[in-house]
Amino acid sequence: MKKVERILIYVLAIGTIICLGLYFAPIKIYLIPINAWERQIWSGPTSTQKEENFVVYNHLFKSKQTLIDSIIAFHDRTIRLDSIKKYPDGYCRSFFKRSTVLDKYYREEPNGSDIIFDHRDKQILAVEWRITGDTVCANFFGKNYKVLITDTATISIYSLSQLVNEKQK
What we know:
This protein is an alpha+beta fold and 169 residues long. Helices cover 33% and strands 25% of the residues. The protein has 4 helices and 6 strands. The protein has helices at 2-24, 64-78, 81-86, 157-168, and strands at residues 28-31, 49-57, 90-97, 123-132, 135-140, 143-148. Strands 1-2-3-4-5-6 form a 6-stranded mixed beta sheet. A hairpin with a 2-residue loop joins strand 4 (123-132) and strand 5 (135-140). The N and C termini lie far apart (67 Å).
């Protein structure tokens, strides 16, 4: 009986260590190497559009807000206004949870039987930037934001949402 108790205690201790390790592991975000222009289906981008897809590792045992905050921080560090200007008809970035199929080595099937759009159920956040005239339009969390292109500080999601909230008050 004592042997069974010891085994159970060891299994519980190992399980706790693994869970704590996953909880405290930093969130990592990788670009999925998909060339959307090679896609032989209707939803390929044009030369004035760009599509980037990212996969989020170490998301287990993390709250949704922690995931979103990490993704927004990553996005704000890596997006630049000149990139948005380069693709005025749309610069879309999508972030997905890692799964057994969707990882940093994911490849779309050439015949269209498995493409990134088939995994929208694992999508955490999508951000789309467009330029219309002298305005930058952003869409995230199902909300549309518009800001004059001269205000370069507003290309971050955080500052853009803060600016829009201040204007609404």
